């Protein structure tokens, strides 16, 4: 169902580094879960519209006026590392 | 003990000056001090609770209208942002995060006079059915410390069951309010999707998540919902349906009510003990005038797979925001940005959260999206249509909450499939967006509570309160409480 190579590819997409032990365990567990999911294939759903959210969605509009609920410094308070009003991160290039 | 008293009676006494909020809050802290080192339902206590209670007392003394929850001590699951109180979703990755704002539903109950006593333990990011995946440790069931309280709102259930507060907030994505309520002998309500604002609640699966109350009785749940519900411009999925005085409108007469029994919910997977207690309840309700009919929910067997594909897909997307850049934990050993993301996430997320992110990333990835995610959403529509069809014939659906009473700590933690299958009776209501309630019915041979689940059509919470109240009267549950209390 799912092999170690797929688990490794998926972990890169998910931005997770897995240990050798985790890779092995997740390969086993995800395979078991996916075998269970396979039961959905028994249902023919070709003519069924996907239901993405359980109640009808509207697009509520509001007047385009800026409301300031928190200050910049409050919003930056939780930054693990910052310089002035910016988040500091390791070099990107 | 005052915290045993229904909320509307406490509020009445507070307003008449026969009781002080400060006394309630002190009783709450005393009970926590006495019991919570064993139960571990709280992860953080509000140092300003007494101050807030004092303010409410002063306002009440001056005859001010403080609100429908004036002076009542409540607890809030660690998934809700509370301004200036650390909010971690019981995950290492949010360690140290102190939100600069409160969830809308927290603001609403505070505006009604409620006093927040503290934040309660839960499974990490609300992902679990046993409260064993919290980074803050396992919560113990107050009825028997060897057993789980259920999850993910295990702390919110346990603190109400052990009378540490009058009520608590839980969140329910696939049963996380109803199942722990059943395991601990309290009332747990998952409102209709959109009834309560999700703004400021840590997101797990946005099309399934819904906040709701956990209380000692049905009327309190109705009263809490009055305070929690209502439109919020900050959540575009939050409904404009009017809020009613559900708690004052409860009609416990079930004469003429038609209740559906889905045959798929009473199959071989259900334990004899739970089946027995539901059958005896059905008999009592029948004698009380309710009419029972058998109904079909033919796609029930596909619900677990549909649910786990959808919730993990939405979770993998929602949890992409935890990157170590703007808030929460950051790994200290990264020399480039991608390594910073990878290291932070690998160090910060626990086992179950990683498993779900992996599963969701797989289901959404190129080549698998149609076969898994879209397929699951198509099945979701069939499940919702099953319910719409059933509600043409009945006012509400009655069934079990879980296959068994609370299981033992450690019993299922190594078997994710078994743990997921445990949610079979609750998660369909989330897929379909329907309101559901768990009401205590009896205790097992081992002395563990067993609850019943009622499901109603969209926005028909009143039906749940009406039938739930009748069940409460028939079973006389209000008299029961764990021995430790």
Q: With helices defined by DSSP (H or I, 4 residues minimum), what is the helix count of chain A?
A: 3
Q: What is the H-and-E element order of chain B?
A: HHEHEHEHEHEEHEHEHHHHEHHEEH
Low-confidence stretches of chain A: none
Strand order in the sheet with the most strands of chain B: 1-3-2-4-6-5-10-11-9-7-8
Low-confidence stretches of chain B: none
Strand order of the largest sheet of chain A: 1-2
Q: Measure the end-to-end span of chain B.
A: 10 Å
CATH topology of the domain at 1-41 in chain A: the name is Histone, subunit A
Class computed from helices, strands and strand pairing of chain B: alpha/beta
Helix content of chain B: 25-40%
CATH class of the domain at 7-256 and 437-479 in chain B equals: Alpha Beta
The overall strand count of chain B is 11
Oligomer: heterodimer
Q: Give the H and E element order of chain A.
A: HHHEE
Describe the protein.
The complex is a heterodimer of chains A (93) and B (485). By secondary structure, chain A is mostly helical. Chain A has helices spanning 4-13, 20-37, 72-76, and strands at 82-83, 86-87. Chain A has a domain at 1-41: Histone, subunit A. Chain A contains three helices and two strands, in the order αααββ. Chain A has a two-stranded antiparallel ribbon. The mean pLDDT of chain A is 92. Chain B is of the alpha/beta class and 485 residues long. Chain B has a domain at 7-256 and 437-479: Amidase signature (AS) domain (Amidase signature (AS) enzymes). In chain B, 38% of the residues lie in helices and 13% in strands. In chain B, strands 1-3-2-4-6-5-10-11-9-7-8 form an eleven-stranded mixed sheet, with helices on both faces. The longest helix of chain B has 21 residues, at 370-390. Chain B starts with 6 loop residues before the first helix and ends in a 10-residue tail after the last helix. The model of chain B has no long low-confidence stretch (mean pLDDT 96). The chains are: A mainly alpha (93), B alpha/beta (485). At the A-B interface, α1 and α2 of A face α9, α10, α11, α12 and α13 of B.
């Amino acid at each position: 169902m799912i092999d170690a190579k797929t688990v490794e590819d998926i972990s890169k997409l998910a931005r997770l580094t897995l240990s050798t032990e985790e890779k092995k365990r997740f390969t086993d567990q995800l395979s078991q879960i996916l075998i269970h999911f396979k039961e959905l294939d028994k249902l023919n759903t070709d003519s069924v519209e996907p239901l993405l959210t359980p109640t009808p969605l509207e697009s509520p509009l509001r007047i385009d006026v800026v409301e300031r609920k928190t200050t910049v410094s409050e919003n930056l308070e939780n930054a693990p590392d910052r310089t002035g009003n910016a988040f500091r991160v390791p070099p990107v290039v | 003990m005052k915290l045993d008293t229904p909320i509307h009676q406490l509020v009445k006494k507070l307003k008449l000056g026969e009781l002080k909020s400060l006394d309630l809050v002190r009783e709450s802290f005393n009970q926590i001090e006495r019991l919570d080192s064993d139960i571990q339902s709280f992860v953080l206590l509000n140092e300003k609770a007494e101050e807030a209670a004092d303010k409410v007392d002063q306002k009440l003394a001056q005859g001010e209208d403080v609100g429908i929850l004036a002076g009542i001590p409540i607890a809030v699951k660690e998934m809700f942002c509370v301004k200036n109180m650390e909010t971690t979703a019981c995950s290492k990755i949010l360690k140290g995060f102190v939100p600069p704002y409160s969830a809308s539903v927290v603001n609403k109950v505070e505006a009604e006079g409620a006093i927040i006593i503290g934040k309660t333990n839960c499974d990490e990011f609300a992902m679990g059915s046993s409260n064993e995946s919290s980074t803050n440790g396992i919560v113990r069931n107050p009825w028997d410390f060897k057993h789980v309280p259920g999850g993910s709102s295990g702390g919110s259930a346990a603190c109400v069951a052990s009378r540490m507060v009058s009520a608590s907030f839980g969140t329910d994505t696939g049963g996380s309010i109803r199942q722990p309520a059943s395991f601990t002998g309290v009332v747990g309500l998952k409102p209709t999707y959109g009834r309560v604002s999700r703004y400021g609640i840590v997101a797990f699966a946005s099309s399934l998540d819904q906040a709701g109350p956990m209380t000692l009785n049905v009327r309190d749940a109705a009263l809490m919902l009055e305070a929690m519900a209502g439109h919020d411009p900050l959540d575009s999925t939050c409904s404009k349906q009017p809020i009613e005085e559900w708690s004052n409108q409860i009609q416990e007469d079930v004469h003429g009510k038609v209740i559906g029994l889905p045959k798929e919910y009473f199959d071989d997977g259900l334990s004899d003990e739970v089946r027995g207690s539901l059958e005896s309840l059905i008999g009592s309700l029948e004698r009380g005038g309710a009419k029972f009919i058998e109904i079909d929910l033919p796609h029930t067997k596909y619900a677990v797979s549909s649910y786990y594909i959808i919730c993990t897909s939405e979770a993998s997307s929602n949890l992409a925001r935890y990157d170590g850049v703007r808030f929460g934990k950051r790994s200290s050993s990264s020399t480039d940005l991608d390594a910073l993301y990878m290291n932070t996430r690998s160090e910060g997320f626990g086992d179950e959260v990683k498993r779900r992110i992996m599963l969701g990333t797989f289901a959404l990835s190129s080549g698998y999206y149609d076969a898994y995610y879209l397929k699951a959403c198509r099945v979701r529509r069939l499940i919702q249509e099953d319910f719409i069809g059933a509600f043409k014939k009945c006012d509400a659906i009655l069934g079990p909450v879980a296959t068994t009473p609370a299981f033992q700590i450690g019993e299922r933690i190594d078997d994710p499939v078994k743990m997921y299958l445990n949610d079979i009776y609750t998660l369909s209501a989330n897929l379909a967006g329907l309101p559901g309630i768990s009401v205590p019915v009896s205790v097992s041979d081992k002395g563990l509570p067993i609850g019943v689940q009622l499901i109603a059509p969209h926005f028909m919470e009143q039906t749940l309160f009406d039938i739930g109240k009748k069940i409460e009267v028939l079973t006389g549950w209000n008299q029961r409480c764990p021995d430790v209390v």
